[in-house]
Amino acid sequence: MRAANIFHLGVKELRSLARDPIMLVLIVYAFTFSVYTRATAMPETLTKAPIAIVNEDGSPLSLRIVNAFYPPYFLPPELITQSEMDTRMDAGLDTFALVIPPDFQRDVLRGRQPTIQLNVDATRMTQAFTGSGYIQTIVNDEVLAFAQRYRKIAEPPVGLALRVRFNPELNKSWFGAIMSVIDNVTMLSIVLAGAALIREREHGTVEHLLVMPVAPFEIMLSKVWAMGLVVLAASAFSLEFVVRRVLSVPIQGSLALFLAGTALQLFATSAMGIFLGTVARSMPQFALLLMLVLLPLQMLSGGTTPRESMPQAVQYLMLAAPNTHFVMLAQAILFRGAGFATVWPQFLAIAVIGSVLFGLALARFRQTIATMA
Questions:
Q1: Residue 302: inside a domain, yes or no?
Q2: Which helix (H) or strand (E) holds 368?
Q3: Which of 66, 172, 177, 299 is the most buried (most CB within 10 A)?
Q4: What does the alpha-carbon distance between residue 326 and residue 311 come to, in Å, rounded to a whole number?
């Protein structure tokens, strides 16, 4: 009867989720629009940055600098006056304002070192950081080419044969789309499992379960498989239709092997969500706990920045998180086409961590039910 109890309780969880329109909208958005927008609008990419130029010189060199900025990195430059610059930047119309001083070309030809002023709107942090380097390189190249009367390309003494594997076009949308799916798997599994427990407590249905011949293990496992099944189906749909077909991102490895690793990840993170649901007394408290747990998991797992660039202490600490191993196996399978012989250590690590998290969550869940009884 225990297997039958787990199955029927899981069906109850699926029916309860089907009557929650907010959660359904969140699931659809996370695996469709969220994946698409993250893939097509990578924040570190400089695209169509607005720039204005105050050209007080009017020389051929200054016009050459003006014409050097064009899409897709920059919008066509707006030629403005000195008095308009501060007003436009205060209004957020320009991210960059370049001021070319009078007699700039004459000073360059005389061997002097004139200064061009670059004003940057630092509230647009990513564009400001990346674009400043782009502008400096563009201006220096144009000035050097004008002073030498020709554009000289320096030939290095050593030839570098560059071969790009797994992403020959260096297309950042490939990375963004798949990492969005990976992050949403973790987020939604924690949210759905924890919200399911808190919803039952708020609606008073936990008391109904206490008088039924079911054990806490059955109640908890039913929530894990039901919510995990929903996220697993949504992630498979997103990879096949949104990532592979809409975004045309090639998936190198076995989708079935990745889904098997995803199932293990869902087992671990759903148990984590139930544990947080037993700690929080309401949905607002659960949301606060979720931010404290989810942000470090996603930021330090190696999906946003490589683990090798983090301090050694952080690297060792994050080995205790299932996300770290899930990101490793997902990138190895989906990007590099790795098989089970390569990623079995990550499978084993997630299984062990998931078992520990499930045991802790079950102990906490039993304690919570005992206090309610």
A1: yes
A2: helix 340-372
A3: 177
A4: 20
DSSP state at residue 101:
P
Element (H, E) at 54: strand 51-55
Domain that holds residue 366: 2-41+169-372
Q: Name every residue whose Cβ is closer than 8 Å to that of residue 177 and which is 6 or more positions away in sequence.
A: 35, 36, 38, 39, 242, 243, 247, 249
3-class DSSP state of 74 = strand
Query: Quick one: which of 170, 138, 161, 165 has its CA closest to 151?
Result: 138
As a whole number of angstroms, the distance between CA 188 and CA 265 comes to 12
Residue 157 placed within a domain = no
| Conformation bin of residue 166: beta by default, left when phi > 0, alpha when psi is -120 to 50 | left
CA–CA gap between residue 217 and residue 173 (Å, rounded): 42
Burial (CB < 10 A; 0-12, 13-18, 19+), residue 246, is: middle
- Map residue 317 onto helix, strand or coil: helix
Boundary (domain end) residue, out of 98, 118, 148: 148
Tell me the pTM. Answer: 0.78
- Residue-wise pLDDT for 229-260, tens only, equals 999 999 999 999 999 999 888 888 899 999 99
Are the beta carbons of 227 and 18 closer than 8 angstroms?
no
Amino acid identity, residue 112?
A: R
Residues contacting 84, CB < 8 A, separation 6+: 52
